[in-house]
Write a structure and sequence with these properties.
This protein is of the alpha+beta class. The chain folds into two domains: 237 residues, Orthogonal Bundle (2-methylcitrate dehydratase PrpD), CATH 1.10.4100.10; 132 residues, 2-methylcitrate dehydratase PrpD (60s Ribosomal Protein L30, Chain: A), CATH 3.30.1330.120. Helices cover 47% and strands 7% of the residues. Helix 1 crosses helix 8, helix 5 packs parallel to helix 8 and helix 12 packs parallel to helix 16. It is globular.
Length: 474
Amino acid sequence: MIAEMDGPTRAIAEYVCSLEDGSIPERSMRDTARHLVDSVACALGALDSRPARVARAIAATAAVDEGATVFGLAQPTTPEYAAFANTVMVRYLDYNDTGNGGHPSDMIAAILALAEIRRADGRTVVRAIHAAYETYAAIRRGGLHGNILRGKHVDQIYATLGAAAGAGVVLGLDLPRMANAIALALTPNVPLRATRTGIISDWKGCATAHGVMNAAFAARLAEQGLTGPARPFEGLGGFCQMLDLAPLDLSTIGQARNGLSAIESTGLKFFPADYNAQGPLESVLSLREGIAPQDIEQVTVSLHWGGWHAIGGGAGDHDEKWNPVTRELADHSMAYLVAVALVDGELTVDSFAAARIADPALRPLMQKIVVREDPELTREHAGELPRWPSRVELVLRDGRRLVRQSGPPKGHPLNPLDDGELEAKFWRMSDRAQPRAAAQRLLDTARSLDRLADIRELTSLFARCTVPQEPGGQ
């Protein structure tokens, strides 16, 4: 396959196979531990969700003595099932990290699952996560940014390919096997954008979990010698032909942009909601001081095109967004998010309880909310490090107009969460799942990722997390 592989496959495989520990910047190693802490926190907050319970139930049917550990499940399972179940939990709250076109930390659980069965050390895991994030970013920057996928009605593919790269690092794949892993991850796993439009279902938080599970499986198949198509991107019937795309340019994979590695360029979330809402929520909470919701005549939220398309009704799903009936739809509804923030003065995980989503008292205020694309904000958002600009205007019944414009929101690489804010987020989530002493050990172990002699020092702690007796997330 080496001589025949297409450009993107070769670029990813050669980069991953040449990556060495010494080539990873110290800041990237630090940020890898921070994103791991953030991912663990998100998983702990989602232990009692319906998708998590379903995923654990499936994982429990395949007990493996030397397998991989799932949050809240005593018996280890296959690495594929562990990758799926743990990613479901990391992703469920829509609270984990984000890049321009998805959530790169969706890949971490797959890497940990394979690292656990191989008893890999922490530095290997750091290198695998670094490779995954760089692959993820290179595909976006190489010609496949999120708006192109939205326009083609294709969902997030980056995590599947990035997870295959990270899995290859953990398994120590050579160049031909790494190329086969990429092909085996891409060819059967092109997902539909239907996942995130209309009445959004449980699958919204499971789609990338499915992708990274299959990436782990692809890497294991390739390790055993199974081959995949030589030209999955550029060949006849390949990805680019399927979507009528220009060839991707991944020649700069692994190169820093604006002095930042891929993981340093990836933001963390302050609010448990779609990233396009982070800036508007900051603005709404600032503007509402001293204002009663009944005094509001209209709220206008202006976004870049991608934000309007994702959560503002721009995908032809206005009616669903203005009357959310599921948690998955509510955290992707700008109208709901703004209304709850205006009324409650906060937006937390509890803002998505079934009773809160169904509260008829919110609907009149939601009908006063307008979401629009502003071409100027679309232009401002473009670039190597998108700034996620937004503008909120409140028109009051007494005629006043209150306006606030937001640049990079809290958690963005240009406006990052500090270590104290990240730790506070961890405690907000972990207090829902386990005693403080156990959580402290989990936090300390995750922080020391690059110093772990065996990743099981971390993953073994996942099984000790306590799942509430009654489902809390629906």
